[in-house]
Amino acid sequence: MAPPPPSVDRVAGHEAARPAPSLDPLFRLMSGDLERVNALIVERMHSPVALIPQLAGHIVSAGGKRLRPLLTLACARLCGYRDGDRHVAIAAVVEFIHTATLLHDDVVDASDLRRGRDTANAVWGNKPAVLVGDFLFARAFQLMVEDGSLQVLEILSRAASVIAEGEVHQLMTANDTATSEEAYLAVIEAKTAALFAAAARVGAVLADRPHDDEMALESFGHNLGIAFQLVDDVLDFAARETELGKSVGDDFRDGKITLPIVIAFARGDAEERAFWRRTLETGEQAPGDLERAVRILERRGALAETLARARAYAGAAIDALDRFPDSPLRRALAEAAAFATERGF
To answer: Which domains, from first to last, does the chain contain?
Structure first.
């Protein structure tokens, strides 16, 4: 999918109205539904194999923003879904898929910290983390079968497949400083944006809304997901560790190629490119290299450019909501998009 037109002004105008965008309005509006989702998650994590709920509960309770299931709940309500609790079950599906991918990601990345806590693989080891991730995927598909909608099953199963493809694609481009912007965006569209898009779109499906409404919400979720990931790329070099919940510079130390790196490498001189090849491709990192990396990124405008791209995607997400009547819920979703580019974690 081509990058969206720059709609930074929409985000900037939102910032003028709310100097500190927040997820709080969305949480307040959806708190009752979200409590039901959390209760269902706890119920469906139950297993006679004690390690499964213990390990799964460790990551589910780790304090994530629950943004993906929130999108399903909010988009269903935005589209007029009022009767029944299908949106609660499908929001739980979305969270189970997301949590399973986190468990697998942490194993692949050999991560020790997530959201300020030890990762499941750091506590129990890689094998249990992978297998419990598989369990959560299975639970997600059980819930979808119980819902009975082939369209919901198609949308979310396709998203799960695309996420897996994105993981493999990222593995193939790891530590490769020749990675292009196009290749990097393809990875994050698959790894991150696909589930955001599906989570939002199924809200319209549950409310039996026209296809154009589905596509508008898919666009909203897709652009919001990319904005979130691009800001994550910036925060790896610019955040405070106490807010980020992991060590600043983890992506750099792991040799991950993110958009700021791609931009700085393209704009850099021979000496800077040699630095990136040494630190990211060969993994030869010395004390002070992270600080030098940040200086290069700032000199080449890579962090500012990445944030500008994130704001453009957030603006496109807000634009996608124009199809729906003004309401507190629509405004809360728009504020969530603005928050994506202003957060510190």
So the answer is: 8-335 (1.10.600.10)
